[in-house]
Amino acid sequence: MTSVTQDRETAVVEAAPKRLYINGQWRDARSGETLEVLDPSTGQLLCRVADASEEDGWDALRAAEAAQKEFAAVPPRQRADMLMRAFELMHQRKDDLALLMTLEMGKPLADAYGEVNYAAEFFRHFAEETTRINGNYQTAPAGNARFIVRKEPVGPSLLITPWNFPLAMGTRKLGPAIAAGCTSVLKPAELTPLSMLALAQLMEDAGVPAGVVNIVVTSTAGTVMEPLIRSGIARKLSFTGSTAVGKKLLEQCAEKVLRTSMELGGNAGFVVFDDADLDQAVEGAMLAKMRNSGEACTAANRIFVHRSVIDSFAEKLAARMGELKLGRGVEDGVQVGPMVDAKQQAKVKELVDDAVGAGAQVVIGGNTGTGSGFFYQPTVLKEVPPSARMWREEIFGPVAPLTPFDTEDEVIDWVNDTEYGLVNYVFTHDLTRALRVAESVESGMVGLNQGAVSNPAAPFGGIKESGLGREGGDTGIDEFLETKLIGIAMS
Ligand code: ADP
Prior knowledge:
The protein is an alpha/beta fold. Helix content is 39%, strand content 20%. The protein has helices spanning 6-15, 54-72, 76-92, 94-105, 109-130, 168-180, 193-205, 221-231, 243-254, 278-290, 310-323, 342-357, 408-415, 431-440, and strands at residues 20-22, 25-27, 34-39, 44-50, 136-139, 145-153, 157-160, 184-187, 213-215, 236-240, 259-263, 268-272, 300-306, 361-364, 379-382, 399-405, 423-427, 445-448, 467-468, 481-489. The chain has a 7-stranded mixed sheet, sandwiched between helices. A hairpin with a 4-residue loop joins strand 3 (34-39) and strand 4. Helix 3 (76-92) crosses helix 7 (193-205). The model has no long low-confidence stretch (mean pLDDT 97).
């Protein structure tokens, strides 16, 4: 891969849609307001995008409401074909989609290509699920009645996505919504709206009818979304973001008892036992820690290594982290991009400084990068104590905190010493121990001898304060389906 020219960067940003997509129309915000989209690797303005207010939100929800009945009646095969065409278009347009994502979000181009592929897979997966929606026909226990159980679309859905995976978090919700026959209003994160707007264009080109997918970009998410949620017109909210915002939204959903799917924060433990293959564990840690430059809710947030192997593990990990090239994601060979904004960069710095103050040692890194972008160096810390803030708070940056442990019971207690429960990783070659630990850790997902578990064909989601519901897999579509019982008298 060679570095991208400035002309190509400019051309891709110029060609990207920058207006709201409501009822099949591209339009400015009613107020005429726009918001700034920055390149986090330079801190410079990329472009301006329409900034929706409450009225635009209402327009979008009314469009989704109006389109719902007709869309629910579109034959499953036709809905599947729309998703398959969108899947194919994503591959055809991957160069532009990946570059746009790198420019607005900062992730290295290779990671952006990976995300385009991952995001497209949700469309293929849910295209395949569309024609498998089924029900049941059953004899009542007393024999005097029959039960027909059928699945129906939940109805218009509100979808809110974060900035760290600007495309994949959208396709993970739009795929099952369309498969199930639900219309939607999607609000992407204001830091990274361009990827989602480009996706909306692509879905229009794939033949998704007007009003079925509506995109509302806004700098005032709370003001725009709260009345829509409280109205009860939408019957479902699917949210990916922080636990704090997720809790607020759950309260708002309670008013009209909306169905909810919540993919919230994480605080993954990564456990390396003394019988693990250390090279495999280091590779796993690189993936679990450095995917998306650490800006992932699945990122290894606390790395527990058996005391007998921690020095060797730390040395190997530091060597790998030290080789990583930090820079603008569009430059050749760059493996770690900037943090998404100055706030995120400051948060990472604050957490590292706090850990060092609490007694952690810096093995490598430990500071912000140079230049005007929001960079932070790949960092390895040793002897991170439970009193460090990063033991409890998501780092969301390229920082690997190591803590030694002595016994299996101790490390399971530590892993579970958090209100989160999204994913944990376990490295050991003892099968019985692997299963025992996998069953004992409190999380919706466990990686055994691997540093990444997310796959569109598998159920993704957390327990405890990491969320409700599962996305992907064969259950992802159920989040957008209601179960209806039709009881029939037979005597
Ligand atoms: P992060 O801290 O990773 O940015 P957030 O939870 O703040 O996570 O953001 C995730 C998504 O939720 C973004 O699209 C953001 O705009 C949106 N969001 C933030 N606050 C609210 C709110 N009060 N109501 C609705 N959406 C919100």
